Amino acid sequence: MTAHDRPVLELTGVSKTYGDVHALTGADLVVRRGELLAVVGPSGSGKSTMLNIMGTLDRPTSGTVRVDGHAVDRLSDRELSALRAQAIGFVFQQFHLAPGVPALDSVADGLLYGGRSRAERRRLAERALRRVGLGHRLHHEPHQLSGGEKQRVALARAVLGDPPLLLADEPTGALDSRSGAVVIDLLHELHRAGTTVVVITHDRDIAGALPREVRIKDGRIEHDSATGAARLREPAVPVLAGAPRPGGTRPREEAPR
Ligand code: ADP
Ligand code: MG
After folding, report:
1. Domains (ranges, CATH) in the chain?
2. Mean pLDDT per segment of 10 residues, for the chain of length 257 residues?
3. Which alpha helices (H) appear in the chain, and where do they start and end?
4. pTM for this model (two decimals)
5. 10, 85, 211, 216 — which has fewest CB within 10 A?
């Protein structure tokens, strides 16, 4: 498998419990390079739990997570931070911009650990802010920006290092519908430019307008438009190797060389 067709993200049988709360149960999901998809479900269905696990911000209780081919459970916290910094951009409903910090610095600080000079970081930050249409707001502080503008600053920061994967958790959740539409347009634009984008939302209209929709309820993936209708459950009893299959044929053996 070449680096290009290796999935960006792969969850296999991923579960997460908090005490006796089953936040996520047996999630299987493969995200390929260049996809734009929604994970949609009602409040409390496990979406943020899933995003945090996809983004390696949290480790699953069981199951395996691969990011860009790396099995997350085999990496130390330090290796995980490095992978996360290089491979994943995040956007959250609450913009997470430090009060009193101008947009340019908020964005430039996203590259603090990349070994670049301050001037270079600011140059890249300015370019990223222009890319999200905020060239005229470089020196504004969060309290001088609208919600939509704040989210665009957060987006600029998330994509500054050109991560192959962007994870957005309810990116329009705190916005009016017009500002929300601008943010969704920007996500489409980043996707067209090559970024793989996962949008988490409770908004079925937003989800329905994206090329792939994964529906989650009570911590279970109920439907994935990429793999067809209601997901088939694994057989409760594993099929024994060599046992006759329904229909009578045996699995073919590898031909000896
Ligand atoms: P969503 O993002 O879809 O609203 P979450 O993933 O935040 O859902 O939560 C799924 C379930 O897990 C909910 O029942 C929530 O209360 C619970 N949960 C989430 N995070 C924690 C936590 N850190 N500790 C305890 N329970 C949690
Ligand atoms: Mg959530």
Report:
1. 9-228 (3.40.50.300)
2. 80 97 97 97 97 96 95 93 92 95 94 83 95 96 97 95 94 95 95 96 95 97 84 47 45 46
3. 47-54, 77-87, 103-108, 118-131, 147-159, 177-192, 204-208
4. 0.87
5. 211
